[in-house]
Design goal:
CATH architecture of the largest domain: 2-Layer Sandwich
Largest sheet: 4 strands, mixed
Radius of gyration: 16 Å
CATH topology of the largest domain: Signal recognition particle alu RNA binding heterodimer, srp9/1
Number of strands: 8
Strand content: 35-45%
């Protein structure tokens, strides 16, 4: 029925700021840009930015995942190098590179300008289940 995720839509409060972050800071390839809708090519999935108002009373600080929210992630070959490069660009990390052996990854999490959590995962050998 479903083949793959075609696009992820990220609601953003400030399109120029978000375009600069995703294009210049993260290095995503810009496919299309407009005041209300922008697309980045990441291979089989498009990351689309959609201009939307920030809800009143919503804190800009990261409070962790909540029901009805969503985040996304990228696979990387070298998490330490990616983490260091993004830190040099002042990207705000809420989780440094952390071994998640039971999941077979090293994981780091940062925030976009509107506080959306984006994860970076590097595959590692998965821990053997204990008997």
């Amino acid at each position: 029925m479903f083949q793959h995720v075609h696009y992820l839509m990220v609601n953003v409060s400030d399109m120029p700021r978000s375009v600069a972050f995703y294009r210049d800071t993260l290095g995503l390839s810009l496919k299309f840009e407009s005041p209300d809708w922008t697309e980045f090519d990441t291979g089989t999935t498009t990351v689309a930015l959609h201009r939307a108002p920030r809800p009143e009373g919503r804190p800009p600080a990261f409070a962790g995942p909540t029901a009805g929210s969503c985040s996304f992630g990228f696979s990387v070959e070298d998490l330490d190098a990616t983490w260091k490069k993004l830190q040099e660009k002042q990207v705000r990390f809420v989780m440094p590179p952390t071994l998640r052996e039971e999941e077979g990854i090293r994981l780091a999490v940062f925030l976009d300008p509107d506080g959306l959590a984006i994860s970076l995962a590097e595959p590692v050998a998965k821990a053997e289940p204990r008997a």
